[in-house]
Design brief:
heterodimer, A: 111 residues, mainly alpha, Helix Hairpins, 77% helix, B: 464 residues, 75% helix
Chain lengths: 111, 464
């Protein structure tokens, strides 16, 4: 499949994530939108990795070009997991104190 | 490599010391571990390799990075000595706070030595994730909760943008390497392939502006700095911010050429610097709380540090090293006094010179240094930054604007000095001030004045 389909798919998923972060008011949903952004990136990285590998394969049958893209995906997954554990703990801590996960609560700090 | 391994190990040691030792001993273990870390880093700086691991080109160690590590570690040492007892008062998990600080330092050391976008990303995350926890460490306090949630959401949002930037650059060039030595492998069969790399760079730039709180991406910073426990605000506003800047400069010194013609790059930076200086300084004027004023002032100082991005020459390297030292030392000193105060508003400082003359005097020195008055380290820090812009053939109007805003900053810094010396009142402290704390402050103020008279004292270590 041509690469542009992957680029369009990943960019639209990413944009859905960005719009979700900017418009939704529920902390959990914002959090899910951020995960969506990260996973859109993963998808695109794998697609690019495969593409670079296919290009290099044409000239050299034993090439390892493109492997670093897939390696990066594993790092992103691990880091995202670490972020989830910290982030959910923070949201639970907020829920214990306020019994709400609404982000409008954040406006109180301004004054 | 020494510093990366040792700082992670120190974090583990701190966690164990939380189980094995009683609460009052933990601070001393932290200071001892930090000394080991400084020695390990200096050994590598003088080319004694104790731990040597082949990182296959993912990390590269140069003198600038190692020297920057040393400055950061010494600033952390000062921070531990002055504010260690305040960290103990935040909550019951003292050992964990110190452990998290060491993990942040591990992130800093990776950020000073990355040689590709992969290690850059890992460094940024190791730096950020412990900070989310530290910000929310005052668990019962609603403001601390809000600050940590806000910091976490903004931080991971900007991480998402950062990753998309890295991915697009990878797609366009086929490598995660820092050097932009041509395109290894190009996108095929995609008509707008040419815009992938510039868009990726812009996303990378936006996300780094988020991380170092440069306008117009600064809006999270005042709330987070205000809501976090004051001791950790001190750490975030100095050491973490300086490390973020170092990574920013290291990254874009190599990558800014990919922006296309140099005109576009300097224009973007020009706008961002002016906006950051304007918003930081003008908003700081209207703050009643000293803590919030310092949050805005840290945005304003970020504007000056951005000069190191604007022009890259010899002055810039010296400038960013000196600025890190001057800014970190002064701000750590100011925050260590702030955490001792009962009331964080300007009125809370009224008459401090009568009740605590030593605190008032050293606080004055720190504020003078932040505003860049001659004979303090802050003057030469600002001087080097502006000199680098002029020497690099940059726009003179930018330098003039920066000097004008430095004059504005004098107004709000001096409001605190005025409150301490010329207003009647009883400035109350929340804990008794010990002699050791006063001695630490005097030594720190002396270092700042010595750096202000002989800035080369610091830079000589860098070159020899």
């Amino acid at each position: 499949m041509p690469i542009q389909y992957y680029i369009y798919l990943a960019l639209s998923l990413f944009s859905i994530g960005v719009v979700g972060v900017l418009t939704r008011r529920n902390a959990i949903i914002i959090f899910m939108c951020i995960e969506l952004m990260l996973n859109a990136t993963n998808l695109l990285l794998v697609a690019f990795s495969k593409m670079h590998h296919a290009i290099a394969l044409a000239s050299n049958a034993a090439t390892q070009v493109g492997i670093e893209g897939q390696l990066f995906v594993f790092f992103i997954m691990v880091v995202a997991a670490a972020e989830v554990s910290v982030g959910l703990a923070i949201i639970v801590m907020m829920y214990r104190n306020t019994h709400s996960v609404d982000i409008n609560f954040l406006n109180r700090l301004k004054n | 490599m020494n510093a990366i391994i040792l700082s992670a190990l120190c974090g583990v040691v701190m966690m164990f010391s939380g189980i094995l030792l009683n609460k009052s001993a933990i601070k001393y273990v932290a200071i001892a571990s930090l000394l080991v870390l400084i020695i390990g880093n200096l050994l590598q700086f003088y080319s004694v390799y104790t731990i040597n691991i082949d990182s296959k080109g993912l990390l590269s160690f140069d003198r600038t990075g190692l020297f920057f590590n040393t400055i950061i570690f010494i600033a952390t040492l000062v921070y531990f000595i002055l504010s260690g007892s305040d960290i103990e008062r935040v909550g019951p998990d003292v050992a964990e706070y110190f452990a998290l600080i060491f993990f942040v330092l591990c992130g800093v050391t990776i950020l000073t030595s990355f040689n590709g976008l992969l290690m850059f990303f890992i460094g940024i995350e190791i730096l950020s994730i412990p900070l989310y926890i530290l910000t929310g460490s005052d668990k019962r306090n609603l403001k601390s909760n809000e600050a940590s949630l806000k910091y976490f959401l903004m931080g991971s949002f900007s991480t998402g943008i950062l990753l998309m930037g890295i991915t697009l650059i990878y797609g366009a060039t086929g490598s995660f390497g820092l050097q932009s030595t041509g395109v290894k492998s190009a996108v095929t069969g995609f008509s707008s392939a040419g815009i992938l790399a510039p868009v990726g760079l812009i996303l990378l730039f936006i996300s780094m502006c988020f991380k170092v709180s440069a306008a117009p991406f600064h809006f999270w910073a005042p709330d987070v700095y205000d809501g976090a426990p004051s001791v950790f605000t001190s750490f975030m506003a100095t050491i973490v911010k300086a490390a973020g800047f170092f990574a920013f400069i290291k990254l874009f010194a190599a990558k800014s050429a990919d922006f296309g013609p140099g005109q576009a790059w300097t224009l973007i930076l020009y706008v961002i610097i002016v906006l950051t200086l304007f918003i930081g300084n003008i908003t700081a004027v209207f703050q009643q709380s000293v803590k919030r004023m310092l949050a805005y002032s840290s945005i304003a100082q970020a504007g000056f540090m951005l000069f190191a991005l604007y022009s890259t020459n010899d002055f810039t390297k010296d400038g960013i090293l000196l600025y890190t030292a001057a800014y970190s030392f002064a701000t750590i000193g100011i925050f260590s006094i702030l955490t001792k105060m009962e009331d964080y508003s300007l009125e809370g400082y009224n008459g401090l010179s009568k009740s605590q003359p030593v605190l008032a005097f050293t606080n004055t020195v720190f504020f003078l240094s932040l505003s860049g008055i001659p004979l303090t380290a802050g003057f030469f820090a600002k001087y080097y930054m502006l000199a680098s812009a002029i020497k690099g053939g940059g726009s003179l109007s930018l330098v003039i604007i920066a000097v004008l805003f430095a004059a504005v900053s004098v107004y709000y810094y001096f409001k605190v000095i005025q409150a301490m010396y010329f207003k009647e009142g009883v400035a109350a402290t929340n804990t008794p001030i010990t002699g050791g704390f006063k001695l630490g402050l005097i030594v720190l103020a002396a270092i700042i004045i010595i750096l202000g008279i002989f800035p080369t004292a610091l830079l000589n270590y860098y070159y020899f």
